[in-house]
Design a protein that fits this description.
alpha+beta, globular
Length: 337
């Protein structure tokens, strides 16, 4: 009765009857992809795809969910890709570091030739870990770093990674029901560069979460570092990609670029202004507290990120975020006078 998920809206009796006996070549069924949304009826989406084939086999359910979430995008559209830092026009909008505390850009990626995280076997997960770590340990320059497997991690290392806000935890009940937490923590870990500005989470919600970050508002530097790493990993490993849906992920909200480009920014006046939401909406950005989705702001500090991921390139995602942040800083400055 109280369920408002996309799954409930689009899994009609007609769609159920059409899909109930189908499965992919990996054996992924309708029951598998909908389990999380059935168990957790407060889900907002409610589906996690099991493999690349799931997108076509279960298209009558998945396509309308994708189009509803990624407003304005049709699954027949072509998704553009552009990870070239020279195409980004994003000078630091806060050179004096008065407003922007830090910048962080991440992408989700999954390797070709494997299932998505809900259906990875123990052997496949370990194989993915080994392949990815092999490439990461060969990275040079400011990407040089070390891999920390979660299995057998000592308390001191774990505490240091927690203090640095780098350690990821076992997935929540939504991921648990989807099968993403199986055999935790085996085959999972964190690669961190020596400068603490580049991270890769292996076999968390996606096989790879590739993250670039640093203090201040130099979005160009953060994007450039990320592009170097992602392009190198892509060349050596190959990622699941569709010309329509972009980079594939088990969660339909993460399709396309799989990118979240964000800043932590101090805007106590702008955030209290009547135009705050309109500026965010007009510039395709979203604001939330710094402790994640549904958290409240503390001391006027907000996490501002791009809203769109599918139907526009990586460069465009960061451009959206930059443009919105410039507007918010302008408003903040005008209200300080």
């Amino acid at each position: 009765e109280n369920c408002r998920s996309s799954l409930r809206r689009y899994l009609t009796k007609e769609v159920f009857d059409k899909l109930k006996l189908l499965s992919t070549s990996r054996g992924v069924t309708l029951r598998d992809i909908t389990r999380s949304g059935v168990v957790n009826q407060d889900s907002s989406v409610g589906v996690y795809l099991g493999d690349e084939e799931s997108f076509s086999v279960f298209a009558p359910l998945i396509n309308p969910i994708i189009e509803e979430y990624h407003k304005g995008f049709k699954v027949t559209d072509t998704h553009p890709a552009d990870f070239d830092p020279s195409h980004l026009d994003a000078p630091n909008p806060d050179a004096d570091a008065k407003y922007i505390i830090s910048t962080r850009i991440r992408v989700a990626r999954n390797l070709k030739g494997y299932g998505l995280t809900p259906t990875l076997t123990k052997e496949e997960r370990t194989e993915v870990e080994k392949k990815v770590v092999g490439v990461l340990e060969g990275l040079g320059g400011d990407l040089t770093g070390k891999y920390y497997p979660l299995t057998g991690m000592d308390d001191a290392t774990a505490q240091q990674l927690i203090d640095d806000h780098f350690l990821f935890k076992k997935g929540d009940r939504f991921l648990e029901a989807a099968g993403i937490n199986r055999e935790w923590p085996e085959g999972r870990g964190i690669f961190r560069n020596d400068n603490k500005t580049f991270l890769v989470w292996i076999n968390e919600e996606d096989q790879l979460r590739i993250i670039s970050m640093q203090k201040g508002g130099d979005m160009g530097a953060v994007f450039s570092r990320l592009a170097t790493a992602v392009n190198e990993l892509s060349d050596k490993l190959g990622f699941q990609y569709s010309s329509n849906l972009g980079y594939l992920s088990s969660c339909p909200t993460n399709l396309g670029t799989g990118m979240r480009a964000s800043v932590h920014i101090r805007i106590p006046n702008a955030s209290a202004h009547a135009d705050f939401k309109k500026i965010c909406d007009d510039n395709q950005i979203q604001a939330r507290g710094i402790h994640g989705e549904h958290s409240e702001s503390a001391g006027g500090v907000y996490d501002i990120s791009n809203k769109r991921r599918l139907g526009q390139s990586e460069v465009q995602c960061v451009q959206d975020m930059h443009k919105g942040v410039v507007k918010l800083i302008e408003l903040e400055k005008s209200l300080e006078k």
